[in-house]
Amino acid sequence: VQLVESGGGLVQPGGSLRLSCAASGFTFSNYYMYWYRQAPGKERELVAHISATGGSTYYAGSVKGRFAISRDNAKNTVYLQMNSLKPEDMAVYYCSTTLYSLRYWGQGTQVTVSS
Predict the structure, then answer these.
(1) What pLDDT, on the 0 to 100 scale, is given for residue 4?
(2) How many CB atoms lie within 10 A of CB 10?
(3) Residue 57 in 3-state DSSP?
């Protein structure tokens, strides 16, 4: 299982970024996918998840209405569109999935929100 995030960077408050996570090594279309984030000194928290078909999504209250998770099963890729970014969104964002009760993580991508 390999998960590779990309798309992080520096953005001003109010700006947008789209994160991508390319998955390989498993049947991507069969599994839920998750985005987590971890800010310095804080615990890793769930940001959003999406069902295997993409028909069901969940968002943490802090990002609801601003972030959108989606997936392209033909490309084995999950996305996180982040709009109206705030300084408190600054964190390392991780892509994740669970197979056979094992949690897999990508290496993370840094999102910095600063003027």
Answers:
(1) 98
(2) 12
(3) strand
* 8 A C-beta contact, residue 89 and residue 80: no
Q: Which residues contact 43 (CB under 8 A, 6 or more apart)?
A: none
Supply the pLDDT for residue 34. 98
Let me know: does 3 contact 78? Beta carbons within 8 Å: no
Nearest partner of 64 among 48, 52, 75, judged by Cα: 48
44-101 pLDDT, tens digit per residue, is 999 999 999 999 999 999 999 999 999 999 999 999 999 999 999 999 999 999 999 9
| Residue 82 Cα to chain centre, angstroms | 9
